[in-house]
Write a structure and sequence with these properties.
45% helix, five-stranded parallel β-sheet, Rossmann fold, alpha/beta, single chain, Helicase, Ruva Protein, domain 3, elongated
């Protein structure tokens, strides 16, 4: 949807210039020829940004700013004047102006300021919706999201849970693989049984073998008593093998046999014991590729990955970032008994601009830190970790001395391409023509962004990556 602008100026030539320039940039421009007329328009219709002259007969731009701030504080006002003294600028900002530009106006600079102001208003509206609506109860505790990638995963989880076959959960560190494992357990028929987890990378080989399969008394030095092992301790429930890709090659055949035969032989025993637990596993490595290259047993991989669930990185589900942040904020504020109501727009912009190498876990830690440190009822930029809130060379100050993040060129290109695609209802031929590039070039860009995990293929009408594993339905 095009942004609606209210342009107020007593000079018809200036109105016509702005109508032509801003209209060609895709904005809907509503003219008003006096402050009083502009205020009337603002009372009767909804606008994303107001652009006003300062020196006008009757109500001037400064007075208009005060009235607009009282009437519609959510609508940014950009002030233009040929009398660009510092005193006038200060008066305009104190009256509630979003920014201040002098005449003759640089039209490119004006369009940039309007775009930022409209984006700020949209972000503020989104934050108010989040503050008011709260977060819907998730299907799985802690698994929150409305992006296409998360909707697909949350739809598949209950179907995967109703079976007893092994599930391999893949994804980068911090994406919530153990949450998914616990969700599969809680949604399944074994919910009343134990949920036991072991990190395959955390124990040396000898201890891991005993931990998993158990041992007899005297099986090795210090084995003073017999031990059941996790496979038997998880009877009637679920055993979660985290970081299964780190399992030593020497133990992989034994795990494979347990999965195939549903029986386990403790270390030092010559007897096998029946096993009755569901096995879930997780890895942040490309286990399929490693198995094909001999770094992991291919037969064990296929036993573990009867169903494979791939968790998207947070950069591929940008629409969920603020939902997650609001959830973590509300939870941290409740735990610490802090009256924190939400976050400011610059904080939201910073969260969306950051690349989140630690995924959801890093976001949760950042919000908990901010809640612990803030001295305000809404989180501000200074509350965020420095690498998120204040990246050197990437933050400048706007006309109100508020921090504004500058985007990398590729990120700006991606946003612009997606904006053009949305404007032409996803028609890639038209989008390529508007962008001035070939249709094949556009497809290459989209496919590259999908491959990097920064673009949801469903959002641009591309086929999703080849699915891994099988559908349990």
């Amino acid at each position: 949807m095009n942004h609606r602008l209210l342009v107020i100026d007593d000079e018809r030539s200036m109105i016509e210039l702005l109508e032509q320039s801003l209209g060609s940039a895709g904005y809907f421009v509503q003219p008003a020829h006096s402050g009083a007329e502009g205020l009337e328009q603002l009372q009767s219709s909804d606008y994303d940004v107001v652009v006003t002259d300062v020196r006008m007969p009757g109500m001037d731009g400064i007075e208009l700013c005060r009235h607009a701030q009282a009437l519609r504080p959510d609508v940014p006002v950009v002030v233009l004047t040929a009398f660009g003294s510092m005193e006038t600028a200060v008066q305009a900002i104190r009256a509630g102006a979003w920014d201040f530009l002098t005449k003759p106006v640089d039209l490119d600079a004006l369009e940039l300021v309007i775009r930022r102001a409209a984006h700020h208003r949209e972000m503020s509206r989104q934050l108010r919706r989040l503050d008011g609506a709260g977060v819907k109860e998730p299907v799985v505790e802690g698994m929150i999201g409305s992006s296409a990638a998360m909707r697909g995963l949350l739809d598949l989880l209950p179907r995967a849970a109703r079976s007893d076959v092994p599930v391999l959960i893949t994804g980068e560190t911090g994406t919530g693989k153990e949450l998914v494992a616990r969700g599969l357990h809680d949604l399944g028929s074994r919910v009343d049984g134990p949920f036991l987890a072991v990190n395959c990378a955390a124990l040396p080989e000898a201890l891991l073998e005993s931990e998993l399969f158990g041992h007899e008394r005297g099986a090795f030095t210090d084995a003073r008593t017999a031990r059941r092992g996790l496979f038997l301790a998880a009877t009637g429930g679920t055993l979660f093998l985290d970081e299964v890709g780190e399992l030593p090659l020497t133990l992989q055949p034994k795990l494979l046999r347990v999965l195939q035969e549903r029986r386990v032989r403790p270390v030092g025993s010559d007897k096998e014991i029946a096993v009755d637990c569901r096995v879930l596993a997780a890895t942040n490595r490309g286990l399929r590729t490693e198995a094909q290259q001999g770094g992991f047993r291919i037969d064990l991989y296929y036993r573990l990955a009867v169903i494979e669930l791939a968790l998207p990185p947070i950069r591929a589900r940008a629409g969920d970032i603020l939902l997650l942040a609001q959830h973590f904020l509300a939870r941290a504020a409740e735990r610490s008994n802090r009256p924190i109501q939400g976050m400011t727009t610059p904080v939201a912009q910073s969260l969306l601009a950051y690349h989140w190498p630690g995924n959801v876990r890093e976001l949760e830690n950042a919000i908990e830190r901010a809640v612990a440190l803030t001295e305000h009822d809404h989180l501000v930029l200074d509350d965020l970790p420095p690498e998120i809130g204040q990246i050197p060379g990437c933050v400048v100050r706007d006309g109100r001395d508020l921090p504004v993040r500058l985007e990398p060129l590729e990120q700006m290109e991606r946003r612009h391409v997606l904006r053009v695609l949305a404007a032409v209802d996803g028609n890639k031929t038209q989008a390529a023509a508007v962008l001035g590039i070939g249709r094949r070039t556009l497809y290459r860009k989209l496919e590259r962004w999908v491959e990097l995990g920064v673009l949801d293929p469903a959002a641009v009408g591309l086929d999703p990556p080849e699915p891994q594993g099988t559908d349990p339905s």
